[in-house]
Amino acid sequence: MENPAFCHHRLPILTFSLLLFCTCFFKPAQSSLDTFLYGGCSQIKYTPGSQYETNLNSLLSSLVNSATYSAYNKFTIMGSSRQDVVYGLYQCRADLAMPDCATCVARAVTHLGPLCSQTCGGAVQLEGCFVKYDNASFIGVEDKTVVMKKCGPSNGYNEDEMSRRDAVLSGLNGAGGPYRVGGSEDVQGVAQCIGDLSMGQCQDCLTEAIRRLKAECGGAAFGDMFLAKCYARYSTSGAQFYAGPNHDSPHHGESEKTFAIIIGLLAGVALLIIFLTFVRRIFGGNGK
Fold it and tell me: Which residues of 230-262 are buried (b: 16+ CB within 10 A; e: fewer)?
């Protein structure tokens, strides 16, 4: 998704082309962030062309626009009657850069169309973000319903590895904040709450998600436990990869190196242009 903030028409043509190349070339691969994890819809339908449909379209547009500058936001679109009111929110994984967050939310919204056609409520969880809307208020309401559980294969119970897994999950449970990451050797874990929960609600939700994860995934190589308002995940022996808060991944490291190289090239080109312009003016002045 192109962000208009990157387009500056006053830049020289050459520099603008290079900057455009930069923003496209450095974007991390989106395939993993766009991976569809789960979705759900209400059974109640709205009438096509109704005020509710208009309000819903307005809400979804607001979610996508907001994701260009914030990792979480909630909206309420009011109507002339209670049945026309739409509530909605999105939550990006907290380690995502804003362009990646915006792209993910936009992709999630495109999933909602065919998945929840003309329904009064819907939710989609992609690898990098979550989007939900409904005509009944759910903002700030704790919900520990299990919406998705996935346990990887068991390669035989490894006591040391499972001890590290339990220690990582305990560390996540004891950490503060709505987004938590941890790791020990080949074990890593991540947990996150939706931003509309209070810290007390968030802790309560994550405690339940982690409890279920340990109890229901046993000695699995990886485990995902998504409740309606939070999730907890772990991976052992590189079974899955969860990016850390500083984008501490091999792909991000390579992107940073390449970014530094291109910025250096851009600086060199800019200096060369300034130098040639200066020389041309000197020799042009001497020729008069």
Answer: bbbbbbbeebbebbeeebebeebeebeeeeeeb
